[in-house]
Amino acid sequence: MKYLHTMIRVSDPEETIRFLELVGLREVKRFDNEAGRYTLIFLAAPGDEDAQVELTHNWDEKGYDGGRNFGHLAYRVDNIYETCQRIMDAGYTINRPPRDGHMAFVRTPDGISIELLQDGPLDPAEPWVSMPNSGSW
Asked: Whole-prediction pTM value?
């Protein structure tokens, strides 16, 4: 058995791609289907292109509420503090800050939860240690 991808539906593909690029993913392929009125966009972490996220954009949809009960995606990052700072600097909320230097949760523009994991915890550091949770994760 081989993992292929995880699919999430998105309302604004370009906004979601910009967000996922902040996490560290890059677009690897894209398919537009005129007859079916949808676009499929595949993203992956550089060097791990076999583990992909498929963004499905149905051209006529009017928005998704609450991530459609999707659990979360999980990615290991090189530096959790730098990744979370990059996401915050772009105007997004860190729902569960990396207070322990190991784990954080963020949400995409469509409310999909993403777990960020540090490979080997970093020493706890400010401002993350004292930062409160910002909602559910």
From this structure: 0.72
